[in-house]
Amino acid sequence: MNREEPLFRKVKNYSYQELKILVGEIRDYIKTVVSKNTGHLSSNLGTVELTIALYRVFDPDEDIIIWDTGHQAYTHKILTGRYGRFNTLRQRKGISGFLRREESVYDVFGAGHVGTGIPAALGIEKALSMVNEKRNVVVVIGDGALTSGMSLEALNQLKQLNSRLKIILNDNGMSISKNVGSLSMTLTDLRLNPVYREIKEDIKGTLESMRMKKLEKLLSRIKDGIKHTFLGGNVFEDFGLNYLGPVDGHNIKEMEAIFKTIKEFDEPFIVHVTTQKGKGLEYAEKDPTKFHSVSKIDPETGERLYTDSLISYSKVFGKVIIELAKKDTRIVAITAAMPDGTGLSEFAKKYPGRFYDLGITEQLCVTFAGGMAVKGTKPVFAVYSTFLQRAFDQLIHDIALQKLPVVFAVDRAGIVGHDGPTHNGIFDIAYLNMIPNMKILAPSSLQELANMFYTLLLHEELDGPVVVRYPRQSEYGILSEIIDNMSQIDLWKWEKLIKGKTRIAILATGSMVQPARDVAAKYGLNMYNCRSIKPLDTTTFDAIMKENDIILSIEEGVRIGGFGSSLLLYASSKRYSGKIHVMGIDDIFSEHGTRAEILKELGLEYGGIESTIKKLRGELNAYNDRVRKDRNNLTGYQLDR
Ligand SMILES: Cc1ncc(C[n+]2csc(CCOP(=O)(O)OP(=O)(O)O)c2C)c(N)n1
Ligand SMILES: CC(=O)[C@@H](O)[C@H](O)COP(=O)(O)O
Ligand SMILES: [Mg+2]
Predict the structure, then answer these.
(1) How far is ligand 1, taken at its centre, from the CA of residue 115, in Å?
(2) First to last CA, the chain
């Protein structure tokens, strides 16, 4: 039970001098904890003053405050009763890096994925109105998140639903990389347009009563429909929002004045706050993208603390796609605002005309790729497994149904570690497995990843979509060697890695092949790398069923609807009389912690596989004993007669 008194209650009474000290302390605390624990550094350094100003005006005990995405809400956590526990951020059993309802009553709506803020706030507002509860509902949303489909769909409903939402737009000009699209250009215009600066000057610095009068006048002019001459008009006003800004997001006093003003009005507002991503930390200010989401770093220099000889799957993918694009000019790469995370940023520089960052729009990206495929290009959409969930219908309706040859590079498949349940990519096998015409591959090594894309993009005639899923993992390897050794492989054939001495086989996919292989080698088991999850290599599987009494399948994904469940369905159709045991993730949301910790808890590593094998071997021995005994008994019975 958390008994910490929320700091926001005290902060309301701080002087501006005290607030300045608090701001510095919070920034320092965030830097210290994130550099040790991993986390979202730049975005959180940018929202310290914004959160303080907001909570001095709006009261989290009274008002409803929603954070879109939640990756920028560390100051919110620190102010709402988690100062003491903040140093456990993103650690196993520690506090989450995102908003979680079970963690605090002040995390009103859980988050992690972009674009949920305005839709959820709108729902909450309407639910409150049904019970005649009039509370302020405030949403904090970034300029990147504002461009996502869900945000825009919700904005489109504000007028019709008579919303009074107060939207605080935290505009730092950045998504993870530079923000893209027309709306981001509009925001740049608004930041620079002197008309708005005049209004800001008008409001700022005036006495409370004067400020209110000016605002009332402004609002009555807005309502009279003359906003276009007075304000110049902007897209937000077309959505029914009163627009105010831009306001300096590092000036608490200035923000307070505007927040107090909007709190007085029974009207929907959008306050355009400008902040700097990485504020107050030189290296993060210089390269906010690099420090958006960080692994362990030296807090003073920002240097990463990890072994250089390890290479991530994303990095190999990024390099491979450049090499392949040299050989085939039809290859294009698409990302939903994740050029860095997916390894595509170098491709973007090398082939700007063949690279599409479409913003945080996974659904758009899928259908856009479909359109490109129709016209003979070879689109590769690189996306995190968890974010591809957004585009389920597009995968079915726009891609698979039409057998469009789109390649999906599904990164962060499996357990992601510190980001936790909102970001774990554990559902993709299941949600893709059920879609007709969809093929799913999983490489078991960096080299196999390279070979898969090499084969798919240069040597296969694709008759529909193909997904390659790979984990948030780094392994030993030399990038140039991997590229030099790229070769064609039989994508749809399972590879026998070990010929065992028992009638037990392990069938593993992707990241599970390496630990399973070690166990198989120790216990003399037959071992297969099932690189094709769908279609099953039924020729090999038929032979496996003939040669083995026990089959253990292992995948880094949910068991329901996964690879193992496909094996079970097929095996039962063939009346296989042996036992198939499926290892994977049960019907739960796995927690945050290191990837190794979580995999261990799930039994998806050497130790877990070994103990399962021991159990299965025990069962097999007991079964064989029973059969032997039965046979003896039977013989005895016959003799007796
Ligand atoms: C559906 C979805 N797609 C992609 C992401 C990855 N992502 C997390 S934060 C972010 C950028 C958001 O930009 P913005 O809202 O401006 O926040 P900032 O970090 O600039 O404060 C992205 C693309 C996500 N969380 N959810
Ligand atoms: C908030 C968000 O969705 C991203 O910032 C994500 O946390 C990045 O994950 P990686 O660190 O795996 O790139
Ligand atoms: Mg931003």
Answers:
(1) 9
(2) 72
Residues of the chain with CATH 3.40.50.970: 60-69+98-281, 310-484
State yes or no: 144 annotated in a binding site.
Answer: yes
Residue with CA nearest ligand 2 atom 8: 293
pLDDT for the residue numbered 624: 81
Q: For the domain bounded by 310-484, which CATH number is listed? A: 3.40.50.970
At 621, the pLDDT band (50, 70, 90 cuts) reads confident
Report the nearest atom of ligand 2 relative to the CA of 293: 11
The beta strands (E) that lie in 38-179 are given as 64-67, 137-142, 166-171
Return mean pLDDT, the chain: 93
| CA of 171 relative to ligand 3 center, distance in Å | 5
Known catalytic residues are 277, 362, 390
What are the strands, taking DSSP E only, across 192-324? 242-248, 269-274, 310-312
Please work out whether the CB of residue 113 comes within 6 Å of at least one atom of ligand 2. Answer: no
d(CA 181, CA 359): 7
Instruction: List Cβ neighbours of 10 (8 Å cut-off, separation of 6 or more).
Output: none
Distance from Cα 212 to the centre of ligand 1, integer Å: 35
Is the CB of residue 279 below 6 angstroms from any atom belonging to ligand 1?
Answer: no
The pLDDT tens digits for 137-182 are: 999 999 999 999 999 999 999 999 999 999 999 999 999 999 999 8
- Are β-strands 310-312 and 137-142 bridged in parallel, bridged antiparallel, or unpaired? unpaired
Beta strands 474-476 and 579-585 are: unpaired
156 among annotated binding-site residues: no
- What's the gap in Å between 144 CA and the centre of ligand 1? 6
Does residue 222 carry a pLDDT above 50? yes
The ligand 2 atom at the shortest distance from the C-alpha of residue 294 is 11
Shortest-distance ligand to the CA of residue 294: 2
Contacts 24+ apart (CB under 8 A), 371-375: 372/332, 372/334, 372/406, 373/404, 373/405, 373/406, 374/402, 374/404
CATH code of the domain made up of 60-69+98-281: 3.40.50.970
Rounded CA-CA distance 261/616 in Å is 68
The CATH number of the structural domain formed by 495-616 is: 3.40.50.920
Question: Residue 571: CB partners within 8 Å, gap ≥ 6?
Answer: 541, 545, 551, 580
ipTM here: 0.99
Tell whether residue 548 is among the known ligand binding residues: no
Helix (H) or strand (E) segment spanning residue 317: helix 313-327
C-alpha span between 279 and 287 (Å, rounded): 11
Cα separation values, 338 from 178, 292, 314, 406, Å: 10, 11, 11, 18
User: Got the DSSP string for 459-496?
Assistant: I---SS-EEEE--S-EEE--HHHHHHT-----TTS-EE
> Both tokens of residue 2?
């958390």
Taking only the tens place, the pLDDT of each residue in 186-220 is 888 888 875 555 555 555 555 556 656 666 666 66
